[in-house]
Amino acid sequence: MSPVTRLATWQLRARFAAGLSAMYAAEVPAYTTLVTVSTQVNADYAARHGDAERLGSLRRVTAERHGAIRVGTPAELAAVADLFAAFGMEPVGCYDLRSARPPIPVVSTAFRPIGADELARNPFRVFTSMLATGDSRFFEAGLRHRVQTFLARRQLFDPALLARARVIAADGGCDAAAADAFVAGAVAAFTLSREPIDKCWYEELSRVSAVAADIAGVGSTHVNHLTPRVLDIDELYRRMTGCGITMIDTIQGPPRTDGPPLLLRQTSFRALAEPRLFRGNDGRIVEGSLRVRFGEVEARGVALTPRGRERYDTVMAHADPAAVWGDYFPSTDAELAAQGLAYYRGGDPSAPIVYEDFLPASAAGIFRSNLDRDSRAGEDAGDASGYDAEWMAGAIGRDIHDPYALYEAQAKEAAA
Ligand code: OOG
Ligand code: NI
């Protein structure tokens, strides 16, 4: 009898990330350009900088991706949590993008591996947003009811896939023979659907918010971007522009400085319009197009402590953060560590702890830069939805990890 080979959840996670990447590459041509250019930028950077691997091995960084998905209801978010648990991805942090200016009508979390060893094996993470239908500033009672009715009828995931995911999560992995089918099923759930879209419904939701239409105007969900990681995002920006791809105007997050990279810098571009089928009021199917998917790239730096983060938020409120940066942040790891602004393993300034999460202002900026129109929100009525981290934990029946507690735990480990 041949021995049964087991795959651990991290191996399934690596296959899931690779499967999504292959799917996205086949569907969004500019993504392939982005990955090619990112890989070159990383190799060139590593050739010129002896310490290129201080923020993660080149193998990790080159394979590293984050995805973004959007769902409509707490039940759909709970299903996502069950599915991702099979890949060792747990919810970390709660991002309320309704407080961005202008607001985006979603509340979000990030599903990711949480242990240092798991992150080193494969750090795949997915920024997951839920439409805030309970917030009456965006959805008046009549519309909310119709949106919720529409969402209650759809099924994002095959119940058999979710049942399988629960078993795999409980067992910590599965037999190799069963892995391909499971991963393929999970990837397929995030592929753009070719089903005709109800034109009238989609347009009505678009008038409230493009995000509402993208989430609740269709019968399924999809990966709307898949983001590679680069070691030099300014260089990446220049090279992509050189390839004829129009990037958004800015790189979101901290400005480029002479000091160690901090937190997260991101930039994006809009993907091409893709042909889609629409069903008109008369039942006729017509060809149309939608621009719902886009490209994004990111550079990750050292994680900031709450004290460092407070300073970061203060400096970013300036008109020109780069001009005053030096008044707020020292330019060496040793000083960042000594002043308790950033996390280092065992307090050793040569052992930075990478920021593994997202930034709400950047996330809202990324959402917005890829929309045709901002969301319309009534200002008068208050928000009685109650959406916050505690609400989210209850809705999905799982703890939402506090990112600072995770960094704190890593910082207490001895430096390698
Ligand atoms: C998510 C946008 C946020 C990021 O990298 O900050 C995000 C979305 O567009 O659904 O992915
Ligand atoms: Ni993103």
Automatic annotation (TrEMBL):
> What is the E.C. number?
1.13.11.93
The record's listing under Pfam families reads:
HGLS (PF07063)
Q: Which GO terms describe its molecular function?
A: dioxygenase activity
InterPro entries assigned to the protein according to its UniProt record, in alphabetical order: HGLS (IPR009770)
At the top level, the lineage of the source is Bacteria
Q: What are the UniProt keywords, alphabetically?
A: Dioxygenase, Iron, Oxidoreductase
Please verify whether the record's keywords include Plastid. Answer: no
Q: This chain belongs to which protein, by name?
A: 2-oxoadipate dioxygenase/decarboxylase
